[in-house]
Amino acid sequence: xxxxxxxxxxxxTGAFVQSVEGFGRGLIDVIAxxxxxxxxxxxxxxxxxxxxxxxxxxxxxxxxxxxxxIFIVGLTGSFTGMVFALQTSTAFALFDAESLVGPTVALxxxxxxxxxxxxLMVTMRAGSAMCTELGTMRVSEQVDALETMAVNPxxxxxxxxxxxxxxxxxxxxxxFNTTGMTGAYIVAxxxxxxxxxxxxxxxxxxxxxxxxxxxxxxxxIFGLAVALICCFKGYNASGGAKGVGQATTEAMVAxxxxxxxxxxxxxxxxx
Amino acid sequence: xxxxxxxxxxxxxxxxxxxxxxxxxxFATKGGLSDRDSTQxxxxxxxxxxxxxxxxxxxxxIPVGEISEITLEGTRAKVxxxxxxxxxxxxxxxxxxxxxxxxxxYLLDLNPGTEQAPAMENGGQIRRVIDTQGVEAVFESxxxxxxxxxxxxxxxxxVLGGEKGAGSLERxxxxxxxxxxxxxxxxxxxxxxxxxxxxxxxxxxxxxxAITQSxxxxxxxxxxxxxxxxxxxxxxxxxxxxxxxxxEGEFKESVSSLKQTLGRxxxxxxxxxxxxxxxxxxxxxxxxxxxxxxxxxxxxxxxTDISDFATRLTTLQTEVGLFSxxxxxxxxxxxxxxxxxxxxxxxxxLLEIIDDPRGSVSTxxxxxxxxxxxxxxxxxxxxxxxxxxxxxxxxxxxxxTTLRVGLIESTGGVGADLHFFDDALTLKMDAFNFxxxxxxxxxxxxxxxxxxxxxxxxxxxxxxxxxAQQRDTATKRLIAGRDFFFGAGFFFTDDDLKSxxxxxxxxxx
Lengths: 271, 509
Known about the structure:
- Chain A is mainly alpha-helical and 271 residues long.
- Chain A contains nine helices and no strands.
- Chain B is of the alpha+beta class and 509 residues long.
- In chain B, the strands form three sheets. In chain B, strands 7-1-4-3-2-6-5-8-12-13 form a ten-stranded mixed beta sheet, with no helix packed on it. In chain B, strands 9-10-11-14-15-16-17-18-19-22 form a ten-stranded antiparallel beta barrel.
- In chain B, α3 crosses α7 and α4 packs antiparallel against α5.
- Chains A and B meet through α2, α6, α7 and α8 of A and α1 of B.
């Protein structure tokens, strides 16, 4: 009777196999997260139209997400506009075309930057808090307690947060537009000596209402996505305090990535 | 009350965001023209690159509308324009695509048309479209200049190329090398001589100064001695007269007086002897001039050098002339002022400023669109402008032939002159304007020039020999093509000018 000794894989082969396994696991996680977020979104939509309407919870979240982010969004917007005006004027001065600073800043802010930056600020400030709060409630079984009391946790906890993200990010986008253009005007007119008439007339010439609408639509999409992702990660957190921390980190990374990916997709669809 | 704080804060944010949104939308809306406030017209463009929706449409630099839509129709771009109501656009309106900056931005300049034409209806078509303006026109102009230069260099290559041309070129280069060496040597030699002249002049002036300063007493004494001599001679003559004219009794006194006179004459002779001795010894200025050979030689060299220098300065000949020619087909005269600088008999530089009734011609492409669908009509407009033309040529003579090259009437060109009967009769041939759009072939001109008197000449010939005649449709002015001419002119050399200036004087300002 002969016995066959199984060949032992060498170290290189083992590392390769582990890499492939890790990549596959990550891919599955990403797809599962996307599926989970979409399913959660449908669930939130379904529960948002059902009674009872908890307006107090909704206003609390609107206040937390929107009003609480005014300072950081306004500050970021004004400095973004100023820096953008400064750098574009340097480039346009090479071609004696400084009159295009206003239109360039205006179109960039209204179409792209305002929505993206406002969503990123909300992600960092409010999204992380949402995720941590929901994760803590999940690991401390407060969510289970709500279910025990016949209160649907999706309607009670998630619907106000997701609606707050959906409505407040566009509002913050408009705030970002205003502070950004104000900062650009100050730098261009008072700092660089561009004529105020030239700045305003050329901006007016090139900017169309649709540019502003495009930014608002993007803001709403980004707000919805950020709120859903953060709620999903927090709502499904497990593993105690460490699990909550990990869920928050994953929520931040996924939210930021989703903002940029969605920006590209929506921008491509609109143009 | 506490319950209302949160909704109030949220409401404030929403109201503020709504106000910002309304402000932005109103601001952006004002930038465009609504259909109610505007008239829509359209035009076909062969090339709409650089034009963009919401691009400016302006009259005399003032915005009066914007581009509302750009679509492709066949091979043409159909550009819709919104023109503000109140702007009186007529059916003969024209629109020009013009570059706004070096970045490639373009705007449309609208010429609203004339009052005689009917008003443009809403949705009407602007049929006159002019493009290729601005930076592109500059580049095109540069391209034409480059082509001109290439033609001239090509002609030179044909003349100088090949073994024969290479040999000529080699000889020319050798001549130029010898010429430059000669000039260099002449300059160096003259520099030394000038130095010598200056040194001599300095020495002479120094000697003169020394004479007037150190030998002033001797000169004074010489003058005194001469005065004494003349005084003594006058006295002697008076005494002799007295002797001849008086009686015997007075003779003794006369002899006595004569003795005294002779005594004084001895003194005078002694003084003269003293002077001649000093001259012989080289004392004083006169003595130095007569006895110092080196000083005399230096004075001679100085005089020679000054004479040579003046001779060289007078070898550069200048000739100033005026001429006028009547162009038969043009029905107008062509006038000019010429300046010929002749450093040597076999070469000269010629500068001419010419008032040519043909003017300078530039080309514009105008696209006119048909009323119905169909291909547009591309027209080429030639715009004639009054301007002086400049000729600047270098000429070199070989036996009875003179070759010229340079600018002829503000374009590159070459020419050749054949001289007969001791230059009394000259046949001149010019070829220039190689790449002008209005000319199918280069402009060739043959001129027969006869020297009637010393400073007067007559000319006759044919201009633009091989091109057919073309006239400006508006002014009927001949802008290209064959034309006969005849005329006359006169010229002055610098000798004549010197005579004139001597006779009339230089006006004082």
